[in-house]
Protein backbone atom coordinates (compact mmCIF):
# COMPACT_ATOMS: atom_id res chain seq x y z
CA UNK A 1 0.00 0.00 0.00
CA UNK A 2 1.13 3.53 -0.67
CA UNK A 3 1.58 5.42 2.61
CA UNK A 4 1.61 9.23 2.69
CA UNK A 5 3.36 10.69 5.75
CA UNK A 6 2.55 14.41 6.05
CA UNK A 7 5.33 16.40 7.72
CA UNK A 8 5.16 20.09 8.65
CA UNK A 9 8.78 20.84 7.82
CA UNK A 10 8.79 24.65 7.96
CA UNK A 11 8.12 25.34 11.66
CA UNK A 12 7.49 21.94 13.16
CA UNK A 13 5.77 21.30 16.51
CA UNK A 14 5.21 24.91 17.65
CA UNK A 15 2.92 23.69 20.46
CA UNK A 16 6.00 22.13 22.05
CA UNK A 17 7.52 25.61 22.58
CA UNK A 18 7.03 25.53 26.38
CA UNK A 19 9.36 22.50 26.50
CA UNK A 20 11.70 22.81 23.49
CA UNK A 21 13.32 25.71 21.59
CA UNK A 22 13.02 26.07 17.81
CA UNK A 23 16.17 24.09 16.94
CA UNK A 24 15.22 21.35 19.38
CA UNK A 25 11.70 21.15 17.99
CA UNK A 26 13.17 20.66 14.52
CA UNK A 27 15.52 17.89 15.67
CA UNK A 28 12.79 16.20 17.68
CA UNK A 29 10.28 16.35 14.82
CA UNK A 30 12.84 14.71 12.52
CA UNK A 31 13.49 11.98 15.09
CA UNK A 32 9.74 11.27 15.26
CA UNK A 33 9.50 11.14 11.46
CA UNK A 34 12.33 8.59 11.41
CA UNK A 35 10.48 6.49 14.00
CA UNK A 36 7.26 6.51 11.99
CA UNK A 37 9.06 5.51 8.79
CA UNK A 38 10.92 2.74 10.64
CA UNK A 39 7.66 1.36 12.07
CA UNK A 40 6.01 0.96 8.64
CA UNK A 41 5.85 -2.68 7.59
CA UNK A 42 8.44 -3.37 4.86
CA UNK A 43 5.98 -4.21 2.11
CA UNK A 44 4.54 -0.68 2.17
CA UNK A 45 5.69 2.19 0.06
CA UNK A 46 6.02 5.55 1.90
CA UNK A 47 6.19 9.09 0.57
CA UNK A 48 6.87 11.97 2.95
CA UNK A 49 4.56 14.84 2.00
CA UNK A 50 6.44 17.83 3.38
CA UNK A 51 5.82 21.58 3.36
CA UNK A 52 9.57 22.14 2.77
CA UNK A 53 12.50 19.91 1.77
CA UNK A 54 13.52 17.39 4.42
CA UNK A 55 16.19 14.69 4.55
CA UNK A 56 14.90 11.27 5.45
CA UNK A 57 14.87 7.61 4.53
CA UNK A 58 11.95 7.81 2.08
CA UNK A 59 11.00 9.71 -1.09
CA UNK A 60 9.94 13.29 -0.30
CA UNK A 61 7.37 15.39 -2.16
CA UNK A 62 7.23 19.09 -1.26
CA UNK A 63 3.75 20.63 -1.29
CA UNK A 64 3.31 23.99 0.42
CA UNK A 65 -0.48 23.93 0.44
CA UNK A 66 -2.55 23.28 3.57
CA UNK A 67 -2.65 19.68 4.77
CA UNK A 68 -6.20 18.93 3.64
CA UNK A 69 -5.63 19.96 0.03
CA UNK A 70 -2.21 18.32 -0.23
CA UNK A 71 -3.55 15.01 1.12
CA UNK A 72 -6.77 15.01 -0.93
CA UNK A 73 -4.85 15.23 -4.19
CA UNK A 74 -3.02 12.04 -3.26
CA UNK A 75 -6.03 9.92 -2.25
CA UNK A 76 -7.71 7.45 -4.66
CA UNK A 77 -9.55 9.65 -7.15
CA UNK A 78 -7.49 12.75 -6.28
CA UNK A 79 -5.74 14.96 -8.85
CA UNK A 80 -2.02 14.38 -8.57
CA UNK A 81 -0.46 17.88 -8.72
CA UNK A 82 1.67 18.73 -11.76
CA UNK A 83 5.31 17.88 -11.15
CA UNK A 84 4.61 15.26 -8.46
CA UNK A 85 7.03 12.45 -9.25
CA UNK A 86 5.93 10.13 -6.44
CA UNK A 87 5.08 6.58 -7.41
CA UNK A 88 1.64 6.40 -5.84
CA UNK A 89 0.22 3.81 -8.22
CA UNK A 90 -3.05 4.17 -10.07
CA UNK A 91 -5.94 6.17 -8.72
CA UNK A 92 -7.73 2.99 -7.64
CA UNK A 93 -4.93 1.81 -5.35
CA UNK A 94 -5.52 2.26 -1.63
CA UNK A 95 -3.63 5.02 0.14
CA UNK A 96 -2.82 5.32 3.83
CA UNK A 97 -2.13 8.63 5.56
CA UNK A 98 -0.04 8.34 8.73
CA UNK A 99 0.97 11.48 10.64
CA UNK A 100 4.69 12.04 11.21
CA UNK A 101 4.31 12.68 14.95
CA UNK A 102 3.00 9.21 15.83
CA UNK A 103 6.28 8.36 17.50
CA UNK A 104 4.67 5.62 19.62
CA UNK A 105 3.63 3.75 16.47
CA UNK A 106 4.88 0.20 16.17
CA UNK A 107 4.73 -2.18 13.25
CA UNK A 108 2.08 -4.17 15.13
CA UNK A 109 -0.10 -1.08 15.60
CA UNK A 110 0.24 -0.13 11.93
CA UNK A 111 -0.56 -3.68 10.82
CA UNK A 112 -3.84 -3.32 12.72
CA UNK A 113 -4.52 -0.13 10.73
CA UNK A 114 -3.85 -1.85 7.39
CA UNK A 115 -5.75 -5.07 8.22
CA UNK A 116 -9.49 -4.24 7.93
CA UNK A 117 -10.87 -4.54 4.41
CA UNK A 118 -13.18 -1.50 4.75
CA UNK A 119 -13.50 1.40 2.31
CA UNK A 120 -12.04 3.69 4.95
CA UNK A 121 -10.20 2.76 8.15
CA UNK A 122 -9.70 5.36 10.90
CA UNK A 123 -7.22 5.61 13.76
CA UNK A 124 -8.69 8.40 15.91
CA UNK A 125 -6.34 10.69 17.78
CA UNK A 126 -6.83 12.10 21.24
CA UNK A 127 -8.76 15.39 21.06
CA UNK A 128 -10.82 14.65 17.95
CA UNK A 129 -8.04 14.26 15.41
CA UNK A 130 -7.60 11.61 12.74
CA UNK A 131 -4.06 10.39 13.28
CA UNK A 132 -4.02 7.77 10.56
CA UNK A 133 -6.39 6.42 7.95
CA UNK A 134 -6.58 4.08 5.00
CA UNK A 135 -8.66 5.06 1.98
CA UNK A 136 -9.73 2.43 -0.56
CA UNK A 137 -12.55 4.31 -2.29
CA UNK A 138 -12.42 7.43 -4.53
CA UNK A 139 -15.56 8.94 -2.94
CA UNK A 140 -13.75 9.73 0.31
CA UNK A 141 -11.87 12.96 1.01
CA UNK A 142 -10.26 14.38 4.14
CA UNK A 143 -10.96 17.59 6.05
CA UNK A 144 -8.45 18.06 8.84
CA UNK A 145 -9.99 21.16 10.42
CA UNK A 146 -11.55 20.94 13.90
CA UNK A 147 -12.81 17.60 15.21
CA UNK A 148 -11.76 15.82 12.05
CA UNK A 149 -12.71 12.31 13.17
CA UNK A 150 -16.34 13.40 13.34
CA UNK A 151 -16.19 15.08 9.95
CA UNK A 152 -14.47 12.07 8.43
CA UNK A 153 -17.16 9.74 9.73
CA UNK A 154 -19.80 12.04 8.24
CA UNK A 155 -18.02 12.21 4.86
CA UNK A 156 -17.85 8.39 4.76
CA UNK A 157 -21.51 8.06 5.81
CA UNK A 158 -22.66 10.57 3.16
CA UNK A 159 -20.83 8.55 0.50
CA UNK A 160 -22.29 5.29 1.93
CA UNK A 161 -18.83 3.86 2.52
CA UNK A 162 -18.02 1.00 4.83
CA UNK A 163 -15.73 2.10 7.66
CA UNK A 164 -13.64 0.46 10.36
CA UNK A 165 -11.93 1.99 13.39
CA UNK A 166 -8.68 0.85 14.98
CA UNK A 167 -8.63 1.10 18.77
CA UNK A 168 -4.95 1.88 19.43
CA UNK A 169 -3.40 3.98 22.19
CA UNK A 170 -0.17 4.13 20.17
CA UNK A 171 -1.88 5.52 17.08
CA UNK A 172 -4.09 7.83 19.18
CA UNK A 173 -1.04 9.51 20.72
CA UNK A 174 0.22 12.28 18.47
CA UNK A 175 3.06 14.08 20.18
CA UNK A 176 1.96 17.71 20.06
CA UNK A 177 2.23 19.19 23.53
CA UNK A 178 4.66 18.97 26.47
CA UNK A 179 2.28 16.59 28.29
CA UNK A 180 2.66 14.08 25.47
CA UNK A 181 6.44 13.71 25.88
CA UNK A 182 6.14 11.43 28.88
CA UNK A 183 4.30 8.85 26.77
CA UNK A 184 7.45 8.41 24.68
CA UNK A 185 9.64 7.92 27.75
CA UNK A 186 7.19 5.34 29.13
CA UNK A 187 6.20 3.44 26.00
CA UNK A 188 8.67 3.94 23.12
CA UNK A 189 12.26 3.02 22.32
CA UNK A 190 13.04 4.86 19.11
CA UNK A 191 14.99 7.90 17.92
CA UNK A 192 12.59 10.41 19.49
CA UNK A 193 12.81 8.75 22.91
CA UNK A 194 16.60 8.58 22.64
CA UNK A 195 16.67 12.25 21.71
CA UNK A 196 14.56 13.17 24.75
CA UNK A 197 16.81 11.18 27.09
CA UNK A 198 19.98 12.64 25.53
CA UNK A 199 18.68 16.18 26.03
CA UNK A 200 18.01 15.46 29.69
CA UNK A 201 14.31 14.54 29.88
CA UNK A 202 13.18 12.01 32.46
CA UNK A 203 9.90 10.88 33.98
CA UNK A 204 9.04 12.85 37.13
CA UNK A 205 6.03 12.68 39.43
CA UNK A 206 4.80 15.86 41.14
CA UNK A 207 1.55 15.90 43.12
CA UNK A 208 0.48 12.66 41.49
CA UNK A 209 1.02 14.11 38.01
CA UNK A 210 3.47 12.21 35.80
CA UNK A 211 5.51 14.37 33.39
CA UNK A 212 8.64 14.47 31.24
CA UNK A 213 10.99 17.11 32.68
CA UNK A 214 14.62 18.09 32.52
CA UNK B 1 -12.83 -14.32 35.45
CA UNK B 2 -13.39 -12.29 38.58
CA UNK B 3 -13.25 -8.56 37.77
CA UNK B 4 -12.63 -5.99 40.51
CA UNK B 5 -13.86 -2.49 39.63
CA UNK B 6 -12.41 0.06 42.10
CA UNK B 7 -14.67 3.06 42.63
CA UNK B 8 -13.81 6.15 44.69
CA UNK B 9 -17.30 6.66 46.07
CA UNK B 10 -16.65 9.24 48.77
CA UNK B 11 -15.62 12.31 46.74
CA UNK B 12 -15.47 11.06 43.17
CA UNK B 13 -13.63 12.80 40.33
CA UNK B 14 -12.37 15.91 42.14
CA UNK B 15 -10.12 16.78 39.18
CA UNK B 16 -13.29 17.44 37.17
CA UNK B 17 -14.15 20.38 39.50
CA UNK B 18 -13.39 23.03 36.83
CA UNK B 19 -16.19 21.53 34.70
CA UNK B 20 -18.67 19.92 37.15
CA UNK B 21 -19.90 20.72 40.67
CA UNK B 22 -19.84 18.13 43.46
CA UNK B 23 -23.33 16.73 42.84
CA UNK B 24 -22.68 16.55 39.11
CA UNK B 25 -19.36 14.79 39.65
CA UNK B 26 -21.14 12.18 41.74
CA UNK B 27 -23.85 11.60 39.11
CA UNK B 28 -21.31 11.50 36.30
CA UNK B 29 -19.02 9.06 38.16
CA UNK B 30 -22.00 6.74 38.71
CA UNK B 31 -22.90 6.94 35.02
CA UNK B 32 -19.32 5.96 34.10
CA UNK B 33 -19.40 3.04 36.56
CA UNK B 34 -22.61 1.81 34.95
CA UNK B 35 -20.96 2.01 31.51
CA UNK B 36 -17.94 0.00 32.65
CA UNK B 37 -20.13 -2.70 34.22
CA UNK B 38 -22.28 -2.85 31.08
CA UNK B 39 -19.21 -3.27 28.86
CA UNK B 40 -17.91 -6.33 30.76
CA UNK B 41 -18.47 -9.53 28.79
CA UNK B 42 -21.35 -11.53 30.33
CA UNK B 43 -19.28 -14.52 31.39
CA UNK B 44 -17.25 -12.40 33.83
CA UNK B 45 -18.05 -11.86 37.45
CA UNK B 46 -17.65 -8.25 38.68
CA UNK B 47 -17.31 -6.85 42.19
CA UNK B 48 -17.31 -3.10 42.74
CA UNK B 49 -14.62 -2.28 45.30
CA UNK B 50 -15.85 1.01 46.70
CA UNK B 51 -14.60 3.37 49.40
CA UNK B 52 -18.23 3.95 50.49
CA UNK B 53 -21.58 2.25 49.76
CA UNK B 54 -22.81 2.70 46.20
CA UNK B 55 -25.87 1.48 44.34
CA UNK B 56 -25.13 -0.34 41.12
CA UNK B 57 -25.79 -3.43 39.08
CA UNK B 58 -23.08 -5.61 40.67
CA UNK B 59 -22.05 -6.84 44.13
CA UNK B 60 -20.33 -4.07 46.13
CA UNK B 61 -17.60 -4.48 48.73
CA UNK B 62 -16.75 -1.41 50.82
CA UNK B 63 -13.07 -1.00 51.70
CA UNK B 64 -11.94 2.37 52.97
CA UNK B 65 -8.22 1.71 52.63
CA UNK B 66 -6.06 3.21 49.88
CA UNK B 67 -6.49 1.70 46.41
CA UNK B 68 -3.21 -0.23 46.36
CA UNK B 69 -3.88 -2.10 49.60
CA UNK B 70 -7.52 -2.77 48.84
CA UNK B 71 -6.67 -4.21 45.40
CA UNK B 72 -3.68 -6.26 46.54
CA UNK B 73 -5.77 -8.18 49.06
CA UNK B 74 -8.03 -9.27 46.23
CA UNK B 75 -5.38 -10.46 43.77
CA UNK B 76 -4.33 -14.13 43.47
CA UNK B 77 -2.34 -14.82 46.62
CA UNK B 78 -3.74 -11.78 48.45
CA UNK B 79 -5.28 -11.90 51.92
CA UNK B 80 -9.01 -11.43 51.59
CA UNK B 81 -9.97 -8.97 54.39
CA UNK B 82 -12.15 -10.29 57.22
CA UNK B 83 -15.82 -9.78 56.45
CA UNK B 84 -15.37 -9.64 52.66
CA UNK B 85 -18.30 -11.65 51.33
CA UNK B 86 -17.41 -11.28 47.64
CA UNK B 87 -17.25 -14.47 45.64
CA UNK B 88 -13.77 -14.04 44.22
CA UNK B 89 -13.03 -17.73 43.80
CA UNK B 90 -9.89 -19.44 45.10
CA UNK B 91 -6.59 -17.66 45.40
CA UNK B 92 -5.31 -19.26 42.21
CA UNK B 93 -8.09 -17.88 40.01
CA UNK B 94 -7.14 -14.97 37.77
CA UNK B 95 -8.39 -11.52 38.74
CA UNK B 96 -8.86 -8.48 36.53
CA UNK B 97 -8.83 -4.92 37.84
CA UNK B 98 -10.70 -2.44 35.64
CA UNK B 99 -11.02 1.20 36.73
CA UNK B 100 -14.53 2.63 37.03
CA UNK B 101 -13.77 5.72 34.93
CA UNK B 102 -13.01 3.86 31.70
CA UNK B 103 -16.25 5.08 30.20
CA UNK B 104 -14.98 4.56 26.64
CA UNK B 105 -14.51 0.85 27.32
CA UNK B 106 -16.38 -1.50 25.01
CA UNK B 107 -16.87 -5.24 25.25
CA UNK B 108 -14.45 -5.62 22.31
CA UNK B 109 -11.75 -3.62 24.08
CA UNK B 110 -12.20 -5.62 27.30
CA UNK B 111 -12.11 -8.92 25.38
CA UNK B 112 -8.68 -7.84 24.12
CA UNK B 113 -7.60 -7.32 27.75
CA UNK B 114 -8.81 -10.77 28.79
CA UNK B 115 -7.44 -12.63 25.74
CA UNK B 116 -3.64 -12.94 26.25
CA UNK B 117 -2.60 -15.95 28.30
CA UNK B 118 0.21 -14.10 30.12
CA UNK B 119 0.84 -14.02 33.89
CA UNK B 120 0.00 -10.32 33.87
CA UNK B 121 -1.73 -8.28 31.17
CA UNK B 122 -1.56 -4.47 31.25
CA UNK B 123 -3.74 -1.79 29.69
CA UNK B 124 -1.66 1.38 30.17
CA UNK B 125 -3.43 4.67 30.75
CA UNK B 126 -2.44 8.05 29.42
CA UNK B 127 0.01 9.75 31.79
CA UNK B 128 1.66 6.63 33.19
CA UNK B 129 -1.34 4.99 34.85
CA UNK B 130 -2.42 1.36 34.73
CA UNK B 131 -6.07 1.56 33.75
CA UNK B 132 -6.76 -2.15 33.68
CA UNK B 133 -4.86 -5.35 34.28
CA UNK B 134 -5.29 -9.09 34.55
CA UNK B 135 -3.31 -11.01 37.16
CA UNK B 136 -2.91 -14.78 36.87
CA UNK B 137 0.05 -15.29 39.21
CA UNK B 138 0.29 -14.87 43.02
CA UNK B 139 3.76 -13.25 42.79
CA UNK B 140 2.37 -10.03 41.33
CA UNK B 141 1.12 -7.07 43.35
CA UNK B 142 0.02 -3.57 42.39
CA UNK B 143 1.40 -0.17 43.40
CA UNK B 144 -0.78 2.61 42.06
CA UNK B 145 1.39 5.55 43.15
CA UNK B 146 3.15 7.68 40.50
CA UNK B 147 3.92 6.23 37.06
CA UNK B 148 2.34 2.92 37.99
CA UNK B 149 2.75 1.26 34.58
CA UNK B 150 6.52 1.49 34.99
CA UNK B 151 6.41 0.13 38.53
CA UNK B 152 4.08 -2.67 37.48
CA UNK B 153 6.43 -3.71 34.69
CA UNK B 154 9.31 -3.74 37.18
CA UNK B 155 7.33 -5.80 39.71
CA UNK B 156 6.51 -8.35 37.00
CA UNK B 157 10.12 -8.43 35.77
CA UNK B 158 11.50 -8.92 39.31
CA UNK B 159 9.15 -11.89 39.76
CA UNK B 160 10.13 -13.24 36.30
CA UNK B 161 6.53 -13.15 35.12
CA UNK B 162 5.41 -13.21 31.52
CA UNK B 163 3.57 -10.01 30.60
CA UNK B 164 1.42 -8.76 27.73
CA UNK B 165 0.23 -5.24 26.93
CA UNK B 166 -3.04 -4.28 25.26
CA UNK B 167 -2.75 -1.32 22.89
CA UNK B 168 -6.19 0.30 23.29
CA UNK B 169 -7.15 3.98 23.10
CA UNK B 170 -10.45 3.14 24.81
CA UNK B 171 -8.75 1.50 27.79
CA UNK B 172 -6.02 4.19 27.89
CA UNK B 173 -8.62 6.94 28.31
CA UNK B 174 -9.55 7.33 31.97
CA UNK B 175 -11.91 10.27 32.33
CA UNK B 176 -10.22 12.38 34.99
CA UNK B 177 -9.98 15.95 33.74
CA UNK B 178 -12.17 18.36 31.78
CA UNK B 179 -10.10 17.73 28.62
CA UNK B 180 -11.13 14.07 28.72
CA UNK B 181 -14.87 14.77 28.45
CA UNK B 182 -14.73 15.41 24.72
CA UNK B 183 -13.53 11.85 24.13
CA UNK B 184 -16.86 10.58 25.46
CA UNK B 185 -18.85 12.88 23.19
CA UNK B 186 -16.79 11.77 20.18
CA UNK B 187 -16.38 8.06 20.84
CA UNK B 188 -18.93 6.70 23.34
CA UNK B 189 -22.68 6.11 23.47
CA UNK B 190 -23.37 5.11 27.05
CA UNK B 191 -24.86 6.56 30.22
CA UNK B 192 -21.95 8.96 30.82
CA UNK B 193 -22.18 10.42 27.31
CA UNK B 194 -25.98 10.75 27.65
CA UNK B 195 -25.47 12.50 30.98
CA UNK B 196 -23.02 14.98 29.44
CA UNK B 197 -25.40 15.76 26.56
CA UNK B 198 -28.38 16.13 28.92
CA UNK B 199 -26.46 18.60 31.08
CA UNK B 200 -25.64 20.70 28.02
CA UNK B 201 -22.16 19.60 26.97
CA UNK B 202 -21.29 19.62 23.27
CA UNK B 203 -18.14 19.43 21.17
CA UNK B 204 -16.72 22.88 20.40
CA UNK B 205 -13.61 23.94 18.51
CA UNK B 206 -11.74 27.08 19.58
CA UNK B 207 -8.39 28.00 18.03
CA UNK B 208 -7.99 24.48 16.68
CA UNK B 209 -8.55 23.00 20.13
CA UNK B 210 -11.47 20.55 20.43
CA UNK B 211 -13.27 20.56 23.79
CA UNK B 212 -16.49 19.59 25.55
CA UNK B 213 -18.25 22.77 26.70
CA UNK B 214 -21.67 23.91 27.79
Describe this structure in words.
Two copies of one chain form a homodimer. Chain A is 29% helix and 20% strand. By secondary structure, the first copy, chain A, is α/β, with parallel strands linked by helices. Chain A has a single domain (2-177), classed as Spore Coat Polysaccharide Biosynthesis Protein SpsA, Chain A. Chain A has a seven-stranded mixed beta sheet with strand order 3-2-1-4-6-5-7. The longest helix of chain A has 18 residues, at 22-39. In chain A, 47% of the residues are buried. The interface between A and B is medium-sized, with 31 and 31 residues.
* Secondary-structure element order of chain A, N to C: EHEEHEHEEHEHHHEE
Read across the widest sheet of chain A, the strand sequence of neighbours is 3-2-1-4-6-5-7
Largest sheet of chain A: 7 strands, mixed
CATH superfamily grouping of chain A: Spore Coat Polysaccharide Biosynthesis Protein SpsA, Chain A
Number of domains of chain A: 1
**Greatest contact between two chains:** A-B, 31 and 31 residues
Oligomeric state? homodimer
Q: Looking at the structure, what is the overall shape of chain A?
A: globular
What would CATH call the architecture of chain A? Alpha-Beta Complex
Number of helices of chain A: 7
**Low-confidence regions of chain A:** none
Estimate the strand proportion of chain A.
15-25%
Distance, first to last CA of chain A: 40 Å
Q: Tally the beta strands of chain A.
A: 9
**Integer average pLDDT of chain A:** 94
Q: Mind telling me the C-alpha Rg of chain A? A: 17 Å
Structural class of chain A: alpha/beta
Amino acid sequence: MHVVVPFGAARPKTRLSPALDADERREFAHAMLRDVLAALPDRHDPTVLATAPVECDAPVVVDERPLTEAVNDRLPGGDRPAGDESDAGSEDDPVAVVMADLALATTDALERLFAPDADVVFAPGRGGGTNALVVRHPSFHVDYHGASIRDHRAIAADAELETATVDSFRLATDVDEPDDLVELLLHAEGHATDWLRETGFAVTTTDGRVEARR
